[in-house]
Amino acid sequence: MRLLPSQTPVVLIDAEGEARPHDTYTLAHDDELLDAYAGLVAARRLNDQASVLVRQGRLAVYPSSHGQEACQVAAARVLTDEDWLFPTYRDTAAIVARGVDPVEALTLLRGDWHCGYDPYAHRVAPQATPLATQLPHAVGVALAARMRGESTVVLALCGDGATSEGDFHEALNFAAVLQAPVVFFVQNNQYAISVPLARQSAAPTLAHKGIGYGVPGEQVDGNDVAALLAVLGAAVQRARSGEGPQLVEALTYRVAPHTNADDAARYRADDEVKAWLARDPITRLESYLTRRDALTPERKQAIAEEADRLAEAMREGLSRDEPADPADLFAHVYASPTPQLTEQARMVADELEREAEV
Amino acid sequence: MMATREKLTMAQALNRALRDAMAEDETVVVFGEDVGHLGGVFRVTDGLTAEFGEQRCFDTPLAESAIVGVAVGMAMNGMRPVVEMQFDAFAYPAFEQVASHVAKMRNRTRGRVALPMVIRIPYGGGIGGVEHHSDSSEAYFAHTPGLHVVTPSTVADAYGLLRAAIASPDPVVFFEPKKLYWAKEEVDVTQAVPPIGTAVVRRTGTDATLIAYGPAVPVALDAAAVAAQEGRSLAVVDVRTLVPFDDETVCQAVRATGRAVVVAEASGFASVAAEIAARITERCFHSLAAPVRRVTGLDIPYPPPKYEGFHLPTVDRILDAVDDLQWEDG
Amino acid sequence: MSHQTFALPDLGEGLTEAEIVRWLVAEGDEIQIDQPVVEVETAKSVVEIPSPFAGRVVTLHGKQGETVDVGAPLISVETDAEEMAQYREEERAGTGHVLVGYGPEPTSAVGRRRRPRRATATTPVPGTPAPATPGPAPLVVSPLVRRLAQEHGIDLRGLRGTGPDGMITREDVERAVAAAQPSPAEAAPSSPAAAVVAPSNGAAAPTPPSTQEASTQGVSTRETERRIPLSAAGRAAAVNLSRSRAEIPEATVWVDVDATALVELRESGRTPDDPGPGLMAYLAAFVVAALREFPVFNGRFDAERNEIVSSTQINLGIAVQGERGLVVPTIMDAGSMSITQLDQAIDEVTTRARSGRVSAAELAAGTFTLNNYGHLGVDGSAAIINYPQVAILGVGRIIDRPWVVHGQIQPRKITQLSFVFDHRVSDGGTAAAFMRAVADAIENPVRALARR
């Protein structure tokens, strides 16, 4: 495969909902796209419900992927049960799309624990906060699987900002030299908090970065789930057949602020946001499927109700308040607590006992 | 010059210090992630790009190691960089640069190459932050010879010590207690700048001495207030500079009472608090009526917001330690 | 001032509109950030919506019962432009969220939330002395010495230390203990085994612990045992006794001596007006003479430098049974005294010791100790050397025993000498020789005195 990305980003369904032919990639069938559509609606609802829950004090913070749902859903859809997903703090929708319970997935952002799900249950790594640090981990998981003769592929998510970190460089280089079955999926949503892409990199595209390592790069319209399914799917297949790592850059947009407490008006104009709203991933797919009579009103209703149930499950699960058990603080620092930790646990227990008496 | 008192938050005071330093010395440059256009995620660099231009205050790509490494180069070549690590735990990629070069350059070149640079790091918890946003990593830096390590606890000191740090010929790691960013005080920034390397007594007392720094200082002061209601008089010392440590002020304050408790957020084992306790024991042994106690964070990774309250030193935990100071021995 | 309009947000339930159930504020009201302003009804429930702005309510866009579209204006608020900026800050200042979390907890009234583990300052702590003057805490050489002071009820703040920078040393505390009032009701010791127990530097007269009467406090009664705390003096003594036994490798030699001639000499010294020198005076003279001949026993041993430190002056300690127990006052420069002077000195120190008027310096000044325990009715004793001295000579009762004189068994006045010495300063031969010198003098006092 050639190393440099195509001249233009891959698009199969454009912003108007029109199909676009492509020599390399094939548009999926309607049923697959309907399933993707349902995923998009659910992801959007998750994003928006979570944002509201922050407002209501039920979540500490929510870095929303509103506008990036196509990337989120496609990332989950192209993987099988034996593959691994490496998400960042913004990829809650992808984690849920992969099958993790939404309340478990939101445990981190709720502030109840650093990771609320069992990574092995759905093969989803804990959400990484420091940027790009999870990329070498992804390479390691892939290599270990390959050593055991498994056909696991690891899909590692990161953002445009993360490609500036040293770990990005080291992970891609490692993966390329050792031919690890990793797909590096860069969601280029144009901003790293307030820093726009132009200040992040002078490369022609982020997909171009792959050539430095000998890793093929591809650029995709990040709001076109059909294109993402095709490109990511192909990359995963290639990795699985031993052809090595690939870098996929999705061009998308972070419609919401960095988190709820970020004042995006300080660094970008409303016009820019509006322009991207017109390229919304859900509307274009809805348009396409409706025109093809694949998305009937009944079907749409059913999908909406499914999304309602998700939102309700979130509201209900996150309004349940379980008291903190301080024993948890000491139970998971080591395989078994050290004498010092045991002593400190006793101190905390004694403090609580005396608090109860006041 | 007439004294001008104004009410500022700590974030504003830091902002003012940067502005005043940049106005006085054109070699002072500020850079980091989101510091330019946005003015910093805590608004500490607010307005600097507008006032001094993008050459003097600018956004960088997302790369902490490069931020510090580039600062080293700029400091080698006549500038006084003041860089920001966005959060304490995100500074780790830069630690190689700090330990291997920021700390060692003067020594390596026998004093020929100095690095007058400041690395600003928001640290500490108490803000209900999710993972990686509440760490206290000052021990790693305090343990590295060649660095000055400074941490204000008041708005006035935030201004004064940052000015002093920027003017210092030595590299300074400047730890800003983020939970105090919104603390408001009436200050006069025209007042003299406290020198780096001086601790200060925040509250006098006769029975025992609390020694604290950064975000732990207000907690120590609260504890002293409660103790006073209970009939016990506690002095509180604000260390302010971890390196170089002010043995004299701290020890004098301990010798006055004969009892000491060191308070700090960071996990206690192998911490700066442990170093302070050892120094006090060595130097003030003959004045001590009881062992030097430490009230610190637990020896665990910083917990999630739900559990934060168990981890951080609280007024109660400090008073428990004070109660243990062998008062029956007189 | 700026006009801010808050639009109805998507409440996350897929609704495109909501019905206003009830306004919670009125136009003209001053509202805070996050203050709930309206209740709207969704398909499932009634939801409160908080305001993101603080300020004065200008317009409520819609009446109760009306439907509002998502995205349409809901409420307009007039805010301070500066307040807008403040909103951003306040939002992070505890009333709302920060970039990465819930934000700091709002500071509430400060006080304890837990019952203290032990009595706090407000509960009077027994034995805590009020500081005499505010000022630096007293410098004390070690925690052990602090404990010593505390056990004896010595207020450190009232002491003047003799160490560097006014540091309070062990000796300072011991001196203070000696000067302090003795604890009540101590019985006389009855054990001959613990003979000399004056501690090295000025502690009070010690008494063997086992014979002490209980102090009034602290006696705990349990079924099988009873605890009797030592008095201050007893504790000090215990320390010195233990130290002596621990540090000095002592050995003992003893010999029975025929004291008949001495007794006769003593009797011959009596006149109707003047009883003449007592036996102790003669014994003291003989010991002094022997010490001149064997100076290794007159002084101390420097273990650090492995040197025998022999004193040029003989300061003879005389063990006396005092009110508080055994005391060992010192006759300074006994070597320069005649027998009569010795007799007077013995008399004088004995009287003083019996009434407890012995200075610490005196107690510490002795270079050798003579212990006559004959009046206790026993013969010998493996005594404990009075640290830091190196030897102690004990003399037992003088009683009639069958003895062989010129080949014939006769009743003679026999007494036993027990000589306990630091084996580092002398071998057995020298020790025996010393004892023989004293014994010979006792057995032939006239010749001994002639030689003086």
Helix-strand layout with pairing:
The complex is a heterotrimer of chains A (358), B (330) and C (452).
Chain A: H1 30-55, H2 69-77, E1 84-86, H3 92-97, H4 102-105, H5 107-110, H6 119-122, H7 134-147, E2 154-159, H8 166-177, E3 182-188, E4 191-192, E5 195-196, H9 197-200, E6 217-221, H10 225-240, E7 246-251, H11 270-277, H12 281-291, H13 297-319, H14 327-331, H15 339-356
Parallel strand pairs in A: 1-2, 2-3, 3-7, 6-7
Antiparallel strand pairs in A: 4-5
Helix pairs in contact in A: 1-2, 1-12, 1-13, 2-10, 7-8
Chain B: E1 6-9, H1 10-24, E2 28-32, H2 48-52, E3 57-59, H3 64-76, E4 80-84, H4 95-102, H5 105-108, E5 118-123, H6 138-142, E6 148-150, H7 155-167, E7 172-177, E8 184-187, E9 200-203, E10 208-212, H8 216-229, E11 234-238, E12 241-243, H9 247-257, E13 260-267, H10 272-284, E14 293-297, H11 308-311, H12 315-323
Parallel strand pairs in B: 2-3, 2-4, 4-5, 5-7, 6-7, 10-11, 10-13, 13-14
Antiparallel strand pairs in B: 1-8, 6-12, 9-11
Chain C: E1 2-7, E2 17-23, E3 30-31, E4 36-41, E5 46-50, E6 55-60, E7 67-69, E8 73-79, H1 81-92, H2 143-151, H3 170-179, H4 232-247, E9 250-258, H5 260-268, H6 279-293, E10 299-302, E11 307-310, E12 316-318, E13 320-322, E14 325-327, E15 330-331, H7 339-354, H8 360-365, E16 368-372, E17 391-395, E18 399-405, E19 408-422, H9 428-443, H10 445-451
Parallel strand pairs in C: 12-16, 16-17
Antiparallel strand pairs in C: 1-8, 2-4, 2-7, 3-6, 4-5, 6-8, 9-19, 10-11, 12-15, 13-14, 17-19, 18-19
Helix pairs in contact in C: 6-7, 6-9, 9-10
